[in-house]
Hints:
The complex is a heterodimer of chains A (294) and B (218).
Chain A: H1 2-16, H2 22-27, H3 32-36, E1 44-49, H4 58-67, E2 78-86, E3 92-97, H5 106-110, E4 116-118, E5 124-126, H6 136-140, E6 147-150, E7 157-160, H7 166-169, H8 176-180, E8 186-190, H9 191-204, E9 213-215, E10 225-229, H10 246-284
Parallel strand pairs in A: 1-10
Antiparallel strand pairs in A: 1-8, 2-3, 4-5, 6-7, 9-10
Chain B: E1 6-8, H1 12-33, H2 48-70, H3 72-82, H4 87-101, H5 116-141, H6 148-178, H7 180-185, H8 188-193, E2 196-198, H9 199-205, H10 207-217
Antiparallel strand pairs in B: 1-2
Helix pairs in contact in B: 1-2, 5-6, 9-10
Amino acid sequence: xxxxxxxxxxxxxxxxxxxxxxxxxxxxxxxxxxxxxxxxxxxxxxxxxxxxxxxxxxxxxxxxxxxxxxxxxxxxxxxxxxxxxxxxxxxxxxxxxxxxxxxxxxxxxxxxxxxxxxxxxxxxxxxxxxxxxxxxxxxxxxxxxxxxxxxxxxxxxxxxxxxxxxxxxxxxxxxxxxxxxxxxxxxxxxxxxxxxxxxxxxxxxxxxxxxxxxxxxxxxxxxxxxxxxxxxxxxxxxxxxxxxxxxxxxxxxxxxxxxxxxxxxxxxxxxxxxxxxxxxxxxxxxxxxxxxxx
Amino acid sequence: xxxxxxxxxxxxxxxxxxxxxxxxxxxxxxxxxxxxxxxxxxxxxxxxxxxxxxxxxxxxxxxxxxxxxxxxxxxxxxxxxxxxxxxxxxxxxxxxxxxxxxxxxxxxxxxxxxxxxxxxxxxxxxxxxxxxxxxxxxxxxxxxxxxxxxxxxxxxxxxxxxxxxxxxxxxxxxxxxxxxxxxxxxxxxxxxxxxxxxxxxxxxxxxxxxxxxxxxxx
Lengths: 294, 218
């Protein structure tokens, strides 16, 4: 099956070279793989094009299905209408809310157990078996993407977030949401080609959406989930310029190292004191009756 | 039993409080430090250490509160002392190297029931104890990202306060259990386990308190 797909992609890659064919390329979701087939897949990126999303929630359903998320639980990706914004034809505009897989990820910095890590394909991998439920990732995430499930009082909780369908990627398939999208509002592929496609799309929709922006190309050194937004990010309830919270750096790069250094010095000092005090004591003992052992 | 050689320093209630507080502090420290020291973090997986942390926290909060309410007068007096600093404290600091390094008991200036070091430790707990409790409760109840900056600041302050208190605790543990002088003298450790110190220890280490205690008895 993979071979077939590859052949198919090869045939397409020729057309991708021609700018004339850019438009059909949008419609064909498979194109995104055309360039990634050449380079290594270490830059997997998903594009969400808000101008093409019709709010059918097929991506959510596919996410639930693939990741075994029952209906009563929160899906790892959420499609929501954007309040106050509509398409030019009056239809609702939708945003897709989920883990953005930052290149510079606060969650990886603060995760104590290494449950969150950088996948070789660039996105933020999540190993649920290592989660301690501390919730730091959720509290330091600029997008408030991770969410907790479990008992608040006991603190026995577990975090959930989009895993980039890591297990699908590893068998050569695209993320469940991407494959399910009927309008190609979602595409997945190598970062460079996806960014290029996104930019081409933005110029294509420019006459309808003059304020359209590409979100995530450079934010936090580049997100692995990028958005075409028809308006400014804040209109979509996204941070205009997401940042690693300063507290992360003060905590992880200043207070904790200082703590380790001072604890080390203190223990060294106390050990030294012990040796000196003991030698002084043994010097004294024969002459100093006051310190007789009981 | 208090013999003529011994003199009562800590009441039974004070000792029980101390050890409950100490045990909860130790459990809190160990379950908390799991999240900081990388080779140990695997023990935090699943969150059980965090549940234990919460249970210990209840004791850590309740023990001092109960102690405070049960012995209002002595607690108030002790807190007052901790905030009163004078020349004898400076003298004690100056005498420290002679005592702790040269093991010379005679250099100690007369001290009250709490010496300067003990006052420092108590002061540290009075300040950072509530800080740890407040930031801890905030992190306990903020289980959704409704107030990210509050949580972030809490983590930061909780961590910082823990480092300060834990370093002070190491000093406390060292001086009262491990230091060569302590091991010979018993001193404060025995006061905390049996409630008493020897007259000799009281005279050399807490002279002003000793003289008052002896005068009161007469």
